[in-house]
CHAD domain-containing protein
Amino acid sequence: MAFVDSFVAQIVAVEVALYHAHARMNAKTDSEALHDLRINLRRIRSLLRPLREIEGITPLNEAAAEVGRLTTPERDLEVLIEELEAQGFTKQA
């Protein structure tokens, strides 16, 4: 498989994973959906890094970074709640 084909396949796979995580977040089916969304955003940014000189890549990378920044407080809260519950502090959680 040529490099471009492999690259496109990786981007499409991550895109599908992003859509899946987003759907799970909307449906509130599990507590890992936001985590998975953030992981896949980082994967996209990693895949785009070698292409950063190409016009149009910078706004996409910045948008993904902004989503990461915006979701950090919520994810931190999710992790804290899970840890409090695991330690038996259900009232605080």
Observations:
- The helical segments are 3-27, 33-48, 57-86.
- The mean pLDDT is 93.
- The chain is about 75% helix and 0% strand.
